[in-house]
Design brief:
307 residues; 35% helix; alpha/beta; single chain; Rossmann fold; nine-stranded mixed sheet; 23% strand
Length: 307
Amino acid sequence: MVDLRNEIAEAIGIIVPNTISNVEYRILESTKEEGYKRQLIEYDSYGDKVIAFLLQPEILDKNPAILINHQHNREHHLGKSEVCGLGGNPLQAFGPELAKRGFVVLAPDSICFEERRQNPHVEGFDFWQHFNEMCYRIIKGDYLMKKVLYDAINGITLLSNLTYVDNEKIGTLGHSYGGNTVLFLSALDDRIAFSCASGSACTYENRIINNVGIEMASVLPNFHGKYDIYDLVSCIAPRRLLIVSAEDDKYSKDASYIVEKASSTYLEYDALQNLHHKRYPGGHGLTKERFDFIIEWLDSNAKHFVV
């Protein structure tokens, strides 16, 4: 899978492994919450300032860590705040639950969301900035996905630099847009030991056939001619991956097919037990049942991790 990983990285313009060995951050404010501390931080990512929340459990000693990638949901005013329980849908608030269970949590704003917008105080769907971020890159032969992934890779580096984090237990999580980031990121960054992608496992082919929109970061010219989402999942093998999908969710419509296609690679590594797929009735939005299952799966896999 090393060759396939390198091919996909080259197609996106990513250099693997990442050349930045240390990402330093500055604390902007700190808030004590029940069971954890929440710090608002900023750090550099190739000249851009990333704003994020860093959640620290009360006990810091070889903790598991996780990068949470927020959803899209046409709500550009929400990002890190939603996954940290400060706004939006409570069923997106994975950060506090995981921090209370001992995880060090990094929740950054993705480009064009919350504090990484041109107009950060305006609520709603900031379509044009996001669209332009994609278009301006494409006409220069560059891709928005490259930017999204380099920001996420630097987030993983930041976590790995923390002295109190167990570098063998770093994971990533996301729903919808965030889950899509998880699949690309986990495929290319093998420092990630466990991942959960919710509401995002759908092939390009299925989206095209069923007239389903493609998120702007996933618009990669010529990519689908050679690769699809099951290739990303194959690159994650033999590491632990949970895919969460739903029967009526057009954004995870053929998740079972993706898992089936990638299973042969996991079998080659004798690691089929590390590829998990949980399918639910219902649509795209998270439910309490799915939220609880994801938390329990991450907790179990991070704290009882066996290489």
